[in-house]
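Please check our next protein.
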Amino acid sequence: MRGFFDIPETGMGAFAPPLPIRVLISEPDAVSRRFACALLERESGITVTCVDDSRLVSSIQESAPDLVIVDVHARAIRRTSSWAALGIEPAPATIVTAYDASAVSPFASTAIDFLVKPFDAERFEASMDLAKSAIARERAGGESGQIVDGKQADPARISWLERLVVESDHRMFLVRAEDIDWIQSSGDYVRLHVGTACHFLRQTMKELQAKLDPKRFLRVHRSAMVNLDRVKEFYLPPTGNMFVTLNTGVSLPLRRHTRFSLRRLLKNIS
């Protein structure tokens, strides 16, 4: 295997770039709002709109966002159980925020995740991973009804990466995505762990994650993504660190998902 920094750029095969993700934020806490916007604006392929409580419903009706981030006590949703109950088309994903972890709301049960404020970057990114997976599933199923340039998005554009081209010792060969056990982040590169072999690829984890089927690959940590077909078990104790163990014997830490949101994600992709 060549040295880490000597690996040439590798082709990834034909892939239709994902459509932009439209995010609508209705967040009364100015610090949380600015923090979330700053994190999202650093990402390519995401557009962010912030509205106040009074414009939440009308903005959803007008812009049909892919993701809504809203405080659980927003007037529009305080006494309702879902977007559908308000007579509006639900977004593919909703993230509910609150100052109190014990806040109870029928609406919160329909959200993809529940963020307790103040939240840090890692917790917010974990929540965004859940939302992106939900949006990808919706688009792949052709159920999002997304409008782009006045036309409904074609679900056939979603074509998950099936093979990756890697190069080593003057040879180029293909690695099937389904054969990958897990993927490890190494800065601007990733390591593909395939059985006893390890291959370097010049892609960031975030770039590669957007091209892989979210029903097969799960980001379990900032630096690790697993093939769910290789997972033996998730260890989710009531307190303390959580782990995922692969059938190869490899154990990897789980990022700080809430146990509730992780269980919901796994049920949705099973």
In short: Residues 219 and 225 are 4 Å apart (CA to CA). The domain at 21-155 is CATH 3.40.50.2300 (Rossmann fold).
